[in-house]
Specification:
alpha/beta, eight-stranded parallel barrel, two-stranded antiparallel sheet
Length: 329
C-alpha cells in the first residue's frame, strides 16, 4: 500500500505538563509554563503540531505572545480546545446548563477560543462537551438539551466560518452519560446544525469506550458527509479513557485504524493524546512517535488488491493470514 509521506504528527500540550488526576489533584509532576512545554516539543523528531488548552494555554489576552512562541520554536498550532468543562460553574453543564448565565459564560469561552485561533493561525477549535450530560433518570429534558446543542453549534460555526469547529465525542466522564456520546449521535447533531465548517474529532480511546469499531467509524464519517476533521490517537483497555501508548494494547485494531485513515484520504494531524504521569515524558513521547511512524510503515507491506479481494469475499481466514504475515516476519 502506498502511504502519504508528509503525515503531520502532533500532541496535546499537556504531555509535558503536571498530569493531575482526581486522586493527585496537584499533579504527579510539577506544572510547566507553555514556553517550556513547547521547547520540549522541539526535542522530539517529527513532532510539529500542538493541541492547546483554551484559557490556560491560550486566550485572547495572551494569543499574540503565544503566536511568537510558535514562531520561535517552529511549531504549528493544531487545535484549541475551548474550556467549557474545567470550571466548577459547569457542574450541571455548559451549553446545556439550566442556568442561563452559565450558558452565556460557555459561549464567551468558545468565542475566546475562536478569536484566539485566528490570532495564532490555528484552523480548528475543539468542542468537548464533557459536562453536558446527566447522571440519573428523570434528571434532564433530553429534547431541550439536544435543541440547545444544535443551536449552539450553529452559533459557533457562524461566528467565524473560516475556523473549523470539531466535536470530540465521548460516552462518559466526568458526567455518567454525555449527550455527545458516539460518532452517530455527534454526526446527527452536526447534520441538523447544517454548517460546512462543523466536523468531528475521532479519539480512538473514546470510540472504544463507546463500544465502537474505530475503523468502521472512519469509514462512516467519510461516507456520510466527510466530517472527520481531526484525530486523537492513544490506547486503553476499553474500560476507561486511559490515554495509553499508541498500539500498546490493541495493536491490530490500531493498524486497521491507520489503514482506513489512509484509505479514506485523511490528511489532518495525527495527534497523540497520551498520559505520561508516571513516565519520563520526553522518552515516552519519542517512543509514541516512533511507534506511530513504524505502524504507518507497516501499511506499505499490505497488498491493496489482495485486501480488496478479501473484502469482497468477507474472508476472515485470509484476513488473519494477512495480519500474521504483515506483523510477524
Amino acid at each position: 500500500m502506498k502511504i502519504s509521506k508528509d503525515v503531520k504528527i502532533g500532541a496535546t500540550s499537556s504531555i509535558f505538563g503536571g498530569h493531575p488526576d482526581r486522586y493527585v489533584t496537584g499533579g504527579y509532576k510539577d506544572a510547566k509554563p507553555l514556553e517550556y512545554r513547547l521547547e520540549m516539543f522541539t526535542k522530539v523528531q517529527d513532532l510539529k503540531g500542538v493541541d492547546l488548552g483554551g484559557g490556560y494555554d491560550v486566550n485572547i489576552n495572551n494569543a499574540a505572545e503565544v503566536k511568537v512562541l510558535f514562531k520561535k520554536f517552529g511549531l504549528t498550532p493544531a487545535a484549541i480546545t475551548a474550556d467549557i468543562y474545567g470550571d466548577r460553574m459547569f457542574f450541571l453543564g455548559s451549553v446545556c446548563s439550566p442556568d442561563g448565565e452559565v450558558r452565556k459564560v460557555a459561549w464567551e469561552r468558545v468565542k475566546d477560543a475562536i478569536d484566539s485561533a485566528v490570532v495564532i493561525d490555528c484552523k480548528l477549535v475543539n468542542l468537548w462537551f464533557g459536562q453536558d450530560g446527566y447522571d440519573y433518570p428523570f434528571q434532564v429534558d433530553y429534547l431541550d438539551s439536544f435543541k440547545r446543542l444544535v443551536e449552539f453549534l450553529k452559533s459557533a460555526a457562524d461566528y467565524n466560518p473560516e475556523i473549523d469547529i470539531a466535536i470530540e465525542y465521548k460516552a462518559l466522564e466526568p458526567r455518567k452519560r454525555l449527550f455527545m456520546s458516539t460518532a452517530a449521535v455527534a454526526l446527527t447533531i452536526i447534520k441538523e446544525a447544517d454548517r460546512p465548517n462543523l466536523g468531528i474529532i475521532l479519539d480512538n480511546g473514546h470510540a472504544w469506550n463507546a463500544g465502537e469499531n474505530i475503523s468502521e467509524m472512519v469509514a462512516f464519517l467519510k461516507l456520510f458527509g466527510d466530517r472527520l476533521k481531526y484525530i486523537h490517537i492513544n490506547d486503553n483497555y476499553k474500560l476507561w479513557d486511559d490515554d495509553m501508548a499508541v498500539g500498546s494494547i490493541h495493536l491490530v485494531e490500531t493498524l486497521e485504524f491507520l489503514f482506513w485513515l489512509e484509505r479514506t484520504g485523511y490528511d489532518g494531524f495525527y495527534t497523540l493524546d497520551i498520559d505520561a504521569s508516571r513516565e519520563d515524558a520526553l522518552s515516552f513521547t519519542r517512543e509514541n512517535v516512533a511507534m506511530l511512524k513504524k505502524l504507518r510503515g507497516v501499511l506499505e507491506r499490505l497488498n491493496e488488491s489482495e485486501l480488496e479481494s478479501i473484502f469482497k469475499r468477507n474472508d476472515s481466514v485470509e484476513s488473519l493470514r494477512i495480519i500474521r504475515e504483515t506483523l510477524i516476519k
